[in-house]
Write a structure and sequence with these properties.
alpha/beta, binds S-adenosyl-L-homocysteine, globular, 7-stranded mixed beta sheet, 9 helices
Length: about 450
């Protein structure tokens, strides 16, 4: 029998679903809008939670806003476009506070958050998929369902300028996308990166080495005026649609370089680079403000990427050592030191959890900066820091839940949460970045 409930949506979870409570049971409501009361059909009921699907709105949300994107609802990338930006910001503050209180036993009264003046057109990189009919689009969250798009309003204007141009060439040569289910088709991934100057770095991952119309297709792409570099990558692994092991530069008009503040960065396709064109500088600046480093300090930067943070603090301190797992990123970092004329930074290839002990033993670091992926820090990293003479930990996190878990461990090892600020690096989505200082 169908069970229909009426429920108020008080929160949005990480998957973008509405969250509400009824008779002491938490419901996750697909398509539920923050702040509304809606009717929903229950699809699954477990002991401590239930799933439901919204049928209709009963009382409209006070925060409701008409989504700007014509693909909203179909494309699951921006799950918050239907609430106003102010409500998005409040939601993110609440999410950070709630996680810190529940998982780290920290009650934060006033959490400041760095927001955006224009919460659109901020992304400098998108990854598109191609369907059977050679149409560009996104996959839905956790699915291989293709949603055709010809623009993405959170991506930079430069990226939006080239989407139709790439589409035209795909249509002309009729190159089909890779099909997960049947393991056929050609294009696995098209990654478009834009920079401050409106130039584009294009990386295409193919399922095979040779295909019909290959040369014509690639030659035509080179004629797109905004494109400064084209890389190709082959990934013939079944069901894996990421860039292959190797990326090969097949066309270069000029080196692709992006800027943050006064610094320039060479970024190769496999290297991580913060995706928000405006708030990245503010994020780094906040970390620097919190650390208050002195000229004689030696700093360890774990999860360094292409060396962005070390470059940003290089003039304030004596020396910075870094560790980064992606080889190409370390190569970029070396070049970035050279083009920015920085001599007191050294980044090595390796895993933070494996290299930290030796680095700490041989150096007298005063501060460690960590900026890990969503899964947060390995316990060994926290242990090594705690057993050293390091006094300050500057933690930049893109997942408040793992951040809170790690703060708890640091606290058990004698550190105190000293400063915290959030930063909205991902407007229209539920994600939020945090910048935290822990001290002994
Ligand atoms: N601080 C950089 C990069 C942050 S993203 C910036 O702001 O640009 C996290 C980085 O950690 C990525 O470059 C990723 O390749 C790297 N990484 C992931 N796991 C790692 C590990 N176990 N050890 C070292 N680096 C790792």
């Amino acid at each position: 029998m169908r069970e229909i409930i009426e429920i108020e949506i008080r929160d949005i979870n990480n998957q973008g679903n509405g969250v509400g409570e009824l008779d002491n049971l938490v419901y996750f409501v697909e398509k539920g809008v923050l702040g509304e009361i809606c009717k929903a059909e229950v699809t699954k009921k477990k002991k401590n939670y239930a799933l439901a699907k919204k049928i209709e709105t009963v009382k409209e949300s006070p925060y409701a806003e008409k989504p700007k994107c014509k693909y909203f609802g179909e494309c699951s990338g921006c799950s918050l476009q239907n609430v106003n930006y102010k409500a998005q910001i409040e939601l993110k503050k609440k999410a950070v506070k709630e996680k810190l209180e529940r998982l780290a036993d920290e009650k934060i009264e006033n959490l400041e958050i760095i927001s955006m003046e224009n919460p659109y057109n901020y992304r400098n990189k998108i990854e598109l998929k191609v369907n059977d009919n050679s149409k560009l689009g996104y996959y839905g969250r956790n699915t291989h369902r293709h949603v055709e798009i010809d623009e993405c309003i959170i991506a930079s204007e430069a990226i939006n300028n080239v989407i139709p141009k790439i589409q035209e060439i795909l249509d002309k040569y009729k190159i089909p996308g890779y099909r997960h289910r049947t393991n056929d088709g050609i294009i696995k991934n098209i990654t478009i990166r834009g920079n401050y100057a409106g130039e584009i770095q294009l990386t295409i991952t193919f399922a095979k080495n040779r295909f019909r119309n290959q040369n014509g297709f690639l030659d035509n792409l080179k004629e797109i005026s905004e494109i400064s570099q084209i890389y190709v990558s082959i990934n013939d692994k079944k069901r894996d649609e990421n860039m292959g092991e190797k990326v090969t530069l097949i066309y270069e008009k000029n080196i692709f370089i992006d800027k943050i503040g006064e610094y320039k960065f060479i970024i190769s396709p496999k290297s991580f680079f913060q995706i928000n064109m405006v708030n990245t500088e503010k994020l780094y600046q906040e970390a620097i403000n919190q650390m208050k480093s002195e000229k004689n300090e030696k700093i360890l930067d774990l999860y360094s990427g292409i060396g962005t943070i070390p470059i940003f603090i290089s003039k304030n301190v004596k020396k910075i050592d870094g560790v980064e797992i992606v080889r190409d990123a370390v190569k970029d970092a070396k070049q970035n030191m050279a083009i920015n004329m920085i001599q007191n930074v050294n980044i090595e290839t390796g895993k933070s959890e494996e290299n930290i002990q030796k680095l700490i033993e041989n150096n007298d670091y005063t501060t460690v900066i960590v900026d890990p992926p969503r899964k947060g820090l390995d316990e060994i990293v926290i242990e090594n820091i705690s057993n050293s003479s390091i006094k300050k930990v500057e933690y930049i996190s893109c997942d408040p839940a793992t951040l809170a878990r790690d703060i708890k461990l640091f606290k058990q090892n004698g550190f105190k949460l000293s400063q915290i600020k959030a930063c909205d690096m991902f407007p229209q989505t539920v994600h939020v970045e945090c910048i935290v200082l822990l001290q002994r």
